[in-house]
Amino acid sequence: MALIYFFAVLAVLVPVVLVPLAATRWAPAAAHGRIGGKLRDAANALVAIFGAKTAAVIVLLAGSAAVITICWPLGEALSRLEPSVDVPVFEYIHARRHDTWAAINSFYTAIGDRDPLKVVSVAFAVVFAPFWKRRWWIPVVAMLGQYLLEQYTQQILATVVDRGHPPTDLGTYPSGGCARVMLTFGTIFLLADLTWRIPRTGRVAMATVLALGVSLEGYTRMYSEKHWLTDVIGGYVFGALLIAAWAFALWTLTGRTARPTPPAPTPTAGGQPYPGDRSQPYPGRSTPYPGARSAAGEQPYPGWEPAAGGARRP
Description:
With 314 residues, this protein is mostly helical.
């Protein structure tokens, strides 16, 4: 029984420690790295060609296809571990169930059920809609769409992998409870950030709370004998990939994938032009750098100056 409690502690400590570390060290490098830049460029190109709405749909379809492509073979691989991993873990937990601890786990794991999350999704759609004014439909589509996205994507994976379930429940691969908690509350946090521009520390805190909730959902699903251990692992991966695809589609729709415009170059002390700026004068001179263009775009030449009335004279 002590080992069961030990893993409950791990389910709390791992996300609390790893998520802030990942958010401060690894996430910025990934977001501003080569792959992140290419993804943003692709999304911006789609917006320029098709518009934001169509581009967001394309991004979502591509992301969902990628999630299925990754999670399908993962499910097949995890299914092979059932005799050597899932069954021994299930039997160990089943032989050491404690009524009070089981009741606590059953209470918490219900958070990931479909019915309560339907209510949460509709409620937060209503909460966010007034803050978006004429674009009220965005939070409504986001909150209702995430529920449908998880449901049908999870059903596709459950059908193609078709691995069965524990003898005590019908839960199968991947754990839908973990993915639903990830999608529902992850979308709430995304909309909160899009609505109020939450600072970085707030975003890290929200990500930590989300990861903690998903981690505990997986633990309680397993202790309540609703899923095999590998179903829960698959649910973690599936939920994380799906919320990433959903978030990128929302960012595409709302313009958050656009690259920031670099600031205009300014001369440094002493008149020294900004490196590479050919519109600023030499140090100590009032004439433009050779080859610079005038404000109207004409190419000046030595001795050129504007004449009265706007005409040019040599």
